[in-house]
Amino acid sequence: MKPIIALDADGVLLNYHEAYADAWARAFGARPALRDPVAYWPIDRWDVRRLHGDELAAFRDCFDAHFWSTIPAIPGAVDACHDLVEAGYDLVCVTAMERRFETARLLNLENLGFPISRVIATQSVQSDISPKAAALRELAPVAFVDDFLPYMRGISKNIHAALVLREPNGSPNEGSGLDHVDSQHADLADFARWWLNEK
To answer: Would the pLDDT of 174 be above 90?
Structure first.
């Protein structure tokens, strides 16, 4: 068996920020203007209003199978994955999303050319332990790459925890939780270069 590297999707493989703006355009007819290019959360990145009631329901309706199967790749992520596969690793996407969209996510990755043939969807609730911890324990990867520090909580110490820092404004990727992270990277391409040089 080849060693496995587990990869988060949104923020690591896929550009959720751009997809969010596309969903806004689907719901309200116009793509929002950019407000803060280094904001971690899309609601802060784009010049959008807080939604309530019918508007919120209409926006949520746009997060359907079409949405989850058409998110663009983060620049450099597809090539980084091919580099890892060529170096002898199997890649598995471990993502916090509704399980009913697992197939749409896999289709998205395949259509973009990612060498990933398996997606594991987990809950997205926040607690003292990462909702991805159980799946990672069963999968037993050599490394796990995510862009959300709380999802590193409670994962096995045998798994190399690699954190993608990405946009800093409003980021949850700070504080004492960083003590449980084994390495920090600008993006997946940076992780792949570092990991392959280290190994």
So the answer is: yes
